[in-house]
C-alpha cells in the first residue's frame, strides 16, 4: 500500500490533448474526488490509473512502484462503473464471488457474506441483478470490486444513474464504507455537492488541467480561480482595484467608489485589478442609507427579483453599474423581507471576501 502519484501525466488523442501535464498525489487511505464539467479529462485520468488508457507521457506510481505500463489486471486497482457491468445471469453472491473464483479460490462463502453485510445487502444474495433496484445493483458492483482487496478503488460516476434522493443516501453510504475499509477511493463526478459531501480532497479540473486541489472547505471559502469560484457553488464576482494594505493586514479595494476589504491571507494578489468575490449566503441586504462610508458596504442596489425557496429567499440585486448580484437570506420569522424595487445596500463581514487576480483568466487563455 502507499500513495498514488501521477507525475507529468499527459494524454493526447491525435492532435487533441485531453489531459495536460498532470501532477497529483492521492494519499493512501483518502477519499479523493476529481470534479469538473463534461469533457474536462476526469475519466481519461481515472482510466490511466486503472490501466485502461496509456499516458502519452508521464508516470503513474503506487506506493513508489511505477505502474504506468502495467495491464489493468496486473495492478492492485479496481473500477466501479456507472453502468455497474454486473453479470445478468449470475445471482448477487456469484457476481460478488466472481473475482475470487477467477483467481482459483473455491471457499469464498464467508468473504462473500461479509462483503454483502458491508454493503447492507445481506438477504438479497440469491437474486439476479434484474430483480434489484438501481441502488442495490450499485452496492453489488461495489462489493464485487472490494472483495478483490484492491489498494485503490476507482469510481467513475458510480451514482450517475440514480435519482437525486438515492444519490444522497448512497453518498453517505460510500463514505461510511470507505472509512470502514480504509482503502484509497478515487471518485469522478461532475456534481460539486457530491464531491464536497464525500471527499477529503477535491481536485477541480478544467480543460485537462487541475485548477485547484484541496479540502472542500478550502476550495469553497478560498477559491483560487474564477472557474473554481463559479463551479463550486455560486459566487458574486465584481471588478475592483486594490488601493492598499493597512496595518491590520487588510487589503482594501475600490469597487465603483465604495471601499471593500479582505484579510491579507484571503487575497491571492496585493496590487492591481482584482475580482472581488463573496458567496451569496454571506451577503446581507440592509435598507439603503445615503453616503455611508462603512467598509464592505456597497450602496445603491435595487432588488430585481425575490425567489422564495422555503429555507431561504434568493434575491437578485441590481448594482448601480448594472451587474446583478445574488443574496441568499435564511428565512427567519423575525426578519423582514425585501421586495422587487426596494432600494438596498449590500454588506458582509470582511473575512468572507476573497480576491482573485483579474489578469489570471487572460493569462490562462
Ligand atoms: P464526462 O463527464 O462527460 O465523462 P470527462 O471529464 O470524464 O467528461 P473525458 O472522458 O476524460 O472527459 O474526455 C476528455 C476529452 O477527451 C473529451 O473532449 C473527449 O471527447 C476526449 N476523448 C476521450 N476519449 C477519447 C478517445 N478515445 N478518442 C478521442 N478523444 C477522446
TrEMBL record:
Residue ranges of every copy of the ABC transporter domain listed in the record: 4-232
Pfam families in the cross-refs: ABC_tran, TOBE_2
GO molecular function: ATP binding
Keywords of this entry: ATP-binding, Nucleotide-binding, Transport
Alphabetical list of InterPro entries matching this protein: AAA+_ATPase (IPR003593), ABC_SmlMolc_Importer (IPR050093), ABC_transporter-like_ATP-bd (IPR003439), ABC_transporter-like_CS (IPR017871), Mo/tungstate-bd_C_term_dom (IPR008995), P-loop_NTPase (IPR027417), Transp-assoc_OB_typ2 (IPR013611)
Xref: SMART domains: AAA
PANTHER family membership: SPERMIDINE/PUTRESCINE IMPORT ATP-BINDING PROTEIN POTA (PTHR42781), SPERMIDINE_PUTRESCINE IMPORT ATP-BINDING PROTEIN POTA (PTHR42781:SF4)
Protein name: ABC transporter ATP-binding protein
Amino acid at each position: 500500500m502507499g500513495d498514488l502519484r501521477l507525475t507529468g501525466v499527459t494524454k493526447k488523442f491525435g492532435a487533441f490533448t485531453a489531459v495536460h501535464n498532470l501532477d497529483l498525489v492521492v494519499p493512501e487511505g483518502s477519499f479523493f474526488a476529481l470534479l469538473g464539467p463534461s469533457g474536462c479529462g476526469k475519466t481519461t485520468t481515472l482510466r490511466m490509473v486503472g490501466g485502461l488508457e496509456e499516458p502519452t507521457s508521464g508516470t503513474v506510481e503506487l506506493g513508489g512502484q511505477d505502474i504506468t505500463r502495467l495491464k489493468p489486471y496486473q495492478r492492485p486497482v479496481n473500477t466501479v462503473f456507472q453502468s455497474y457491468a454486473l453479470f445478468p445471469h449470475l445471482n448477487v453472491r456469484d457476481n460478488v464471488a466472481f473475482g475470487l473464483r477467477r483467481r482459483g479460490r473455491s471457499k469464498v462463502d464467508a468473504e462473500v457474506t461479509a462483503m454483502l453485510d458491508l454493503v447492507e445487502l445481506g438477504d438479497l444474495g440469491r437474486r439476479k441483478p434484474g430483480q434489484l433496484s438501481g441502488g442495490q445493483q450499485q452496492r453489488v458492483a461495489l462489493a464485487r470490486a472490494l472483495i478483490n482487496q484492491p489498494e485503490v478503488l476507482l469510481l467513475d460516476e458510480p451514482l450517475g444513474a440514480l435519482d437525486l434522493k438515492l444519490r444522497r443516501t448512497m453518498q453517505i453510504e460510500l463514505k461510511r464504507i470507505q472509512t470502514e475499509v480504509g482503502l484509497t477511493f478515487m471518485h469522478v463526478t461532475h456534481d460539486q455537492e457530491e464531491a464536497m459531501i464525500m471527499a477529503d480532497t477535491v481536485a477541480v479540473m478544467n480543460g485537462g488541467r487541475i485548477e485547484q486541489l484541496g479540502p472542500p472547505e478550502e476550495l469553497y471559502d478560498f477559491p483560487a480561480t474564477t472557474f473554481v469560484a463559479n463551479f463550486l457553488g455560486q459566487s458574486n464576482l465584481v471588478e475592483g482595484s486594490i488601493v492598499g494594505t493597512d496595518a491590520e493586514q487588510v487589503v482594501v479595494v475600490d469597487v465603483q467608489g465604495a471601499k471593500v476589504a479582505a484579510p491579507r491571507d484571503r487575497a491571492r494578489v496585493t496590487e492591481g485589478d482584482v475580482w472581488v468575490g463573496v458567496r451569496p449566503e454571506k451577503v446581507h441586504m440592509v435598507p439603503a442609507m445615503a453616503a455611508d462610508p462603512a467598509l464592505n458596504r456597497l450602496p445603491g442596489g435595487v432588488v430585481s427579483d425575490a425567489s422564495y425557496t422555503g429555507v431561504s429567499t434568493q434575491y437578485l440585486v441590481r448594482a448601480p453599474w448594472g451587474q446583478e448580484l445574488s443574496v441568499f437570506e435564511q428565512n427567519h420569522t423575525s426578519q423582514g423581507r425585501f421586495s422587487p424595487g426596494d432600494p438596498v445596500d449590500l454588506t458582509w463581514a470582511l473575512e468572507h471576501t476573497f480576491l482573485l487576480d483579474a489578469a489570471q483568466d487572460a493569462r490562462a487563455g
